[in-house]
Amino acid sequence: MKQGYALITGASEGMGREFAGLFARDGYPLILVARNKARLETLAAELKAAGSADIRTVPLDLSRPAAAEELKAVIDAQKLEVAVLVNNAGAGVHGFFKDADLKTTEDMLRLNMTTLTHLTRLFLPAMVQKSCGKILNVASTAAFQPGPLMACYFASKAYVLSFTEALADELSGTGVTVTAFCPGPVKTLFQERSGTADIRENAFAMDAAKAAAAAYRGLMRGKTLVVPGAMNKLLAFLVRLAPRRLVIRATRFLEEKR
Fold first, then answer.
1. How many CB atoms lie within 10 A of CB 130?
2. Residue 203: is its pLDDT beyond 70?
3. Which of 28, 134, 157, 216 is catalytic?
4. What domain count does the chain have?
5. Is there a contact between 53 and 2 (Cβ–Cβ < 8 Å)?
6. Which end of the chain, C or N, has fewer beta carbons within 10 A?
7. Using an 8 Å Cβ cutoff, are 92 and 153 in contact?
8. pLDDT score at 162
9. Are 189 and 245 a contacting pair, CB within 8 Å?
10. Is the per-residue pLDDT at 192 higher than 70?
11. DSSP-derived secondary structure letter, 199
12. pTM of the entire structure?
């Protein structure tokens, strides 16, 4: 696996930054992708100072329609092989759907679903051909139920979970594994950018390093689904048993501001 690169999107902060540190610790060369060039370069410098020799940075806005193909072209031009793909980049929009800015919502959906799918399709065939590879798709416990006040975000994460579980079955026996990571709220800049800093759900927010470590362990073990934390596991199980309307009401309560 370490003969190829670990490609991490949304790598400049939050869980992406933590993923970079975990892969670097285990000797992986890295391709780090994010919009913020300065933060990427700072992270690369820190990792190199800690002993990581081969780190490539690609400043790129993955919410743009052609971004996945642009990223693949950059990697192909440098003749790099991707052994692990971490689809971590994502965004959220809080508030009533009728009031949300349409372009912001479309950009979020493109980033959370379309780009993730496109990157998976671009890098997966080479992994299957080599009978070796790993893909981590960052979803959320939002994937398990509808989410009033974040309707499109919750729906996008349901797509990621469904897509990943189906793909994992298709890849059975190929030597390639794909993992869906479904954390609850995680302490990152996501809250500030999505307008969710003051919602009730954040009372249960997990540390980014702890969340990333759980995802990394599951990925390396080839697990299809990783839900970190006993409370998140319990809630993910209970929403399958409780009346749907009750689940939606409870979710709205958690998504409302304190």
1. 15
2. yes
3. 157
4. 1
5. no
6. C
7. yes
8. 98
9. no
10. yes
11. B
12. 0.94
pLDDT digits (tens, 9 = 90+) for 11-68: 999 999 999 999 999 999 999 999 999 999 999 999 998 887 799 999 999 999 999 9
Q: What ranges in 8-115 are assigned the alpha helix state H?
A: 14-25, 37-49, 67-77, 102-109
| Torsional class of 149: left (φ above 0), alpha (ψ -120 to 50), beta (otherwise) | left
Domain that holds residue 221: 5-255
Question: Which tokens sit at 134?
Answer: 């790993």
Residue with tokens 């969340």: 211
Q: Which residue's structure tokens are 């670990």?
A: 6
Sheet containing strand 82-87, strands side by side: 55-59, 30-34, 5-9, 82-87, 133-138, 176-181, 225-226
Report, as an integer, the average pLDDT of 122-150: 97
Gap between the Cα atoms of 102 and 219, Å rounded: 34
Query: Binning pLDDT at 50, 70 and 90, where does residue 2 land?
Result: low
Q: Quick one: angle between helices 151-170 and 116-130, nearest 10?
A: 10
Question: DSSP states of 85-129 as a string?
Answer: EEE-------S-GGGS-HHHHHHHHIIIIIIHHHHHHHHHHHHHH
Which residue in 28, 153, 159, 216 is the catalytic one? 153
Confirm whether 159 is a catalytic residue: no
Each residue of 74-86: pLDDT tens digit?
999 999 999 999 9
CATH number at residue 87: 3.40.50.720
**Active-site residue, 157 included:** yes
pLDDT interval class at 185 (50, 70, 90)? very high
